[in-house]
Amino acid sequence: MDASLTPEQDEIRRTLRELLHSRCGPRELRAAVDTPAGHDPALWTALAEQLGLPGLALPEAYGGVGCSATELALACEETGRSLAPSPLLATAVLTAPLITALGADPQRTALLPRLASGALTATLAVPGPSLATALALTGDNTGDWAGGGRAGGVQARRADGGWRLYGQVDQVLDGHSAALLLVAAHAGGFARSRTLLFLVPGDAAGVVRTRQTTLDATRPQGRIQLRDVEAELLGDESADALPALAAVGQLTAAVLACEAVGAADRALDRTVQYVKQREQFGRPIGSFQAVKHRLADVYVEVQAARSAAYYAAWSATPPRGAGGVDMRLRRVGATSHNEPADARRHTAALPEAPLALAQSLEALRTASAEGIQFHGGIGFTWEHEAHLYFKRAAGDELLFGPVHRLRAHAADAARLFETSAEREVTV
After folding, report:
1. To which H or E segment does residue 59 belong?
2. What is the pTM of this model?
3. Using one digit for the tens of pLDDT, what is the confidence trace for 359-373?
4. Alpha carbon distance 402, 392 (integer Å)
5. Hey, what domains does the chain have and what are their CATH numbers?
6. H or E element, residue 404
7. By the 8 A CB rule, do 91 and 98 touch?
8. What family does the entry list (predicted)?
9. Which of 298, 194, 176 is nearest to 244 (CA)?
10. Digit-coded pLDDT (tens) for 397-419
């Protein structure tokens, strides 16, 4: 097995690293997070027009580059190194795959080329603090988070031949600035309860959006209030959103794992450079054996997380159907034993991605914490960048974790702690 990257993948990483090095330094990063949008529109335009990043994993038939989840994950590893704030995760990872999988042909034709070009930004709005559960990362994706026919969440009802939404979503990535909202809402009442996805323009009548104060300023979030808002159903009513959300959860976990590895690697690099310069007792602190041992442990943890993240990115790369459409999103949840082995590999819930995400977030937390420690007094100051990496680790755990729940749910999905008798009964 050849685990090395292809020349094209190496070129993606190199070009993106050079662009971010020149356009997203510490000063530019702080200026970007203080803008109303929470990111630099000029940088987003450069990422979209020069590198085609939003359409990297979209089919060529819809204006995308036609690459796989692996290339998208490698690109996000570089954005993670610089903590570049951008709508990439919300647009290209959370929203575009759902539109590709569930959208009707007119919807895909109208939206995907604009998403691929970066002209349109989008985000997924999931009610409550339930994004990780909705993506089947930390719990069973049963749809209870959408309201379950009771008060709360976002409710969808038919009106005048269309659909109208009412409710509130508190934690939406780029929810305050995205031009298109993909809202998960409950429909059908208690008797015919189901979860559907709806397209809502960000400036639609009845939509009230407010930027939230977040622990990680490089990952801006917004609160969205939907006050009897007219919405367009994504696909048709027969398209159950839950399996598609679970499949997107695997892609999201793989991409986030690579992003966290990039951030951890950068935090470690900065620490290594600093301990070579900082002196105590007349010698660099990096020459002390205790410091070497601690940083060596961090290095091993980061490299192990990188291996897990790369494997998860490969595992999340689905087979492609006609026109390059992601087939795993359509097949996820299927149980037929007549499918080819490669197809079955992509239909079941894959624990590799959540486990890789847990390992990568843990590596980032360790690398950033050790970085703050070894930077001494300056590492605790607001002016230094060390705290930004620590906040990224903590913020991602709050939004997509925590680590122990990612591992626990992966163990349950793999039936790790079931006895042989329990497995026989289940089968």
Report:
1. none
2. 0.89
3. 999 999 999 999 999
4. 13
5. 7-120 (1.10.540.10), 124-233 (2.40.110.10), 241-426 (1.20.140.10)
6. helix 403-413
7. no
8. Belongs to the acyl-CoA dehydrogenase family.
9. 194
10. 999 989 999 999 999 888 888 76
Contacts of 98 (CB under 8 A, 6+ apart): 124, 182, 197, 234, 241, 244, 245, 248, 329
Per DSSP (E only), the strands in 126-236 are: 154-159, 162-173, 180-187, 194-201, 207-211, 221-233
Token pair listed for 65:
């580059």
By residue count, the chain amounts to 427
Cis, bond preceding 220 (omega within 30 deg of 0): no
What the block records as the tokens of 4 is 């090395």
Asked whether 127 and 154 are in contact (CB, 8 A), the reply is yes
Q: How far apart are the first and last CA of the chain?
A: 34
Among residues 175, 178, 168, the alpha carbon closest in space to that of 206 is found at 168
pLDDT band with cut points at 50, 70 and 90 for residue 250: very high
| From 114-123, 129-138, 215-224, the region with the lowest mean pLDDT | 129-138
Whether 88 contacts 54, CB under 8 Å: yes
Report how far residue 181's alpha carbon sits from residue 201's, in angstroms, rounded to the nearest whole number: 6
Cα–Cα distance, 227 to 205 (Å, whole number): 8
Task: Establish how many alpha carbons lie within 13 A of residue 256's alpha carbon, considering only the half-sphere containing its beta carbon.
Answer: 34
Half-sphere exposure of 18 (CA within 13 A, CB side): 7
Structure tokens at 99: 């539109």
Q: How far apart are CA 358 and CA 338, in angstroms?
A: 33
Burial of 140 (0-12, 13-18, 19+ CB in 10 A): middle
Most confidently modeled range among 7-16, 100-109, 156-165: 100-109
Give yes or no for residue 93 having a pLDDT over 60. Answer: yes
**Is 70 exceeded by the pLDDT of residue 344?**
no
